[in-house]
Amino acid sequence: MAPLGQVDDMAHASLRFYAELNDYLPPAQRQRDIRVSFDPGCPVRHLIETRGVPHTEIEIVLSNGVSVDLEAPVADGDQISVYPVFESLDVSPLLRLRPYPLRDSRFFADAQLGRLARYLRLLGFDTEYVSGIDDTVLVARASAEQRIVLTRDRQLLMRREVTHGCHIREDQPLRQLRYVIKRCDLVAAARPFTRCMECNGRLVEVAKSDISDRLEPATRESFDRFWRCETCRRIYWRGSHFEHLCVLVDAVLGKTD
Q1: pLDDT tens digit sequence for 185-231
Q2: Residues 6 or more apart from 167 whose CB is under 8 A from it?
Q3: Cα torsion angle, 154, 160, 161, 164, sign
Q4: Is it the case that residue 153 has pLDDT exceeding 90?
Q5: Do residues 146 and 51 touch, judged by C-beta distance below 8 A?
Q6: 163-183 pLDDT per residue, tens
Q7: How far is CA 253 from the centre of its chain?
Q8: What is the reported pLDDT for 240?
């Protein structure tokens, strides 16, 4: 309410979030219209992110039933509906906020997601991870390299420069991995055992004779096929650990129950 003798020049709109976007809201604001005040002409992005919802988690915004982008100005009395990323519904007639996906699913995981980064590399996905990297540097690199930002920090995803991102809410790394696979539809694109889990470099098969001097005697005796990381030169072979990793890969890609 405006103080006595002053005119309230704030505009008002109705804002409603759908499906899992309600998880970001206080319980009292979920699954209902929220009346918000704002300075006339502010972009719809501002109204959405003041409620704590990162724009990277949004697929469709409707203003009075018409699809708009995040920079569309909001007018007094507007009805704003906000929808999450759709997994199966055909929304092609509407204005999707990111009309074209990245050609390849490439990721940049923040400092809290080192295990997730290793798992994505295991599945063959180009995933950068730098411990302790500054958020500004991370965002700049992800944008320049066209990478999807993976983070548990939703404030990071609210930066305008972040065009593609996933908010990771799970605590357990394998659950995080399953979420990213489902969210980004990665099953068909997975190429397990083609990247180094340590540095993200590509693995290429190498002749045993070329790396024999680097092998322990028991390894040299028991195995004949080897792979080497093109970047860090780490050597890989299909030892007992390989079977355990195969079980993990099959499980997260839905090939086993």
Answers
A1: 899 899 999 999 999 999 999 999 999 999 999 999 999 999 999 99
A2: 54, 56, 57, 151, 152, 154, 157
A3: positive
A4: yes
A5: no
A6: 889 999 999 999 999 999 998
A7: 17
A8: 87
Rg (CA), the chain: 23
For 220, other C-beta atoms within 10 Å of its C-beta total: 16
Q: What is the pLDDT of residues 12-39, one digit of tens each?
A: 999 999 989 999 999 999 999 999 999 9
Which burial class, exposed, middle or buried, applies to 22 when counting CB atoms under 10 A from its CB (0-12, 13-18, 19+)? middle
The 8 Å CB, 24+ separation contacts for 35-40 are 36/12, 37/10, 37/11, 37/12, 38/10, 38/11, 38/12, 38/13, 38/74, 39/10, 39/11, 40/9, 40/11, 40/75, 40/76
91 has pLDDT over 90? no
Q: Record the tokens describing residue 195, joined without a space.
A: 């990247």
Please tell me the distance from the alpha carbon of residue 81 to that of residue 16, in angstroms, as a whole number: 5
